[in-house]
Amino acid sequence: MIRVVTDTTAGLPPDLAARHQIPVVPQVIIFDGEEFLELEELSHEEFMTRLVASKNLPKTAAPAPSAFEAVYRPFVEAGDTIISIHPSTEISGTVRGATVAAQSFPGADIRILDTRTIAGPLARMVLTAAQWAEAGKSADEIMAGLHQMIKRQRIYFLVETLEYLQKGGRIGGAQALVGTLLQMKPILTLRDGRVEPVERQRTFKKALARLKELVIAEAAPGADAQLTIMHAASPDIAQALADDLKTALDAPEVMMMNLVPAIVTHAGPGALAVGFFARE
User: Fold this and answer.
1) Residue ranges making up the domain that contains 144
2) Using an 8 Å Cβ cutoff, are 269 and 232 in contact?
């Protein structure tokens, strides 16, 4: 049997993870030296309350290898193949932890995948892998398909401020914008796994309109877009964006997600993102 594993940076809705029997390994959130397992010991709501009230920004840590070992062990003992799907190594140490854990099981078929992305596109790849496994595809076929999806995945996002990305060390190429923005609103992306600037607009309204233009121009039509809208405490704006893109792309559904604490720690409150897969 093929088992698909991921972590909380995928933002995979719990009902979908349960339906497809996908273990989700939690990231670690650290407030003033106190550690919490993401979404297990600290909910979205609790995190946002603490984030706004805290004088110090929280820190994040990737799951320890032991967390992955605990998930992998029963599958290895059952003789299963494991496909463990995680965010870009440029912005997270999760792949490293999973790789170290896999080395504890010599001879086991454990495949670790760096998707070069995070959040919505990562969640879509995890779900697709699980569906392919359920349909009887081999591990080699699933891995080949995922590598093709990596080439097509896209994510664009807006942030209220670059402060969180800068302080969290995840700012990448967007560092060039620091100190030059004034009231400008940047549109950012992940390019080859790193945060990079796309362009900037004078207002949030203009940035949001331009974000929609970019997605509509690049996304595959219909179901192939696999649209995901992600937000940090901006549900109304996110829903309006989802409705507009669903209509424009004739998409049968749009997955809505709260950005998880490990991502909000670096993107900040008010962050808004769109994940999708581009035209072939």
Assistant:
1) 2-151
2) yes
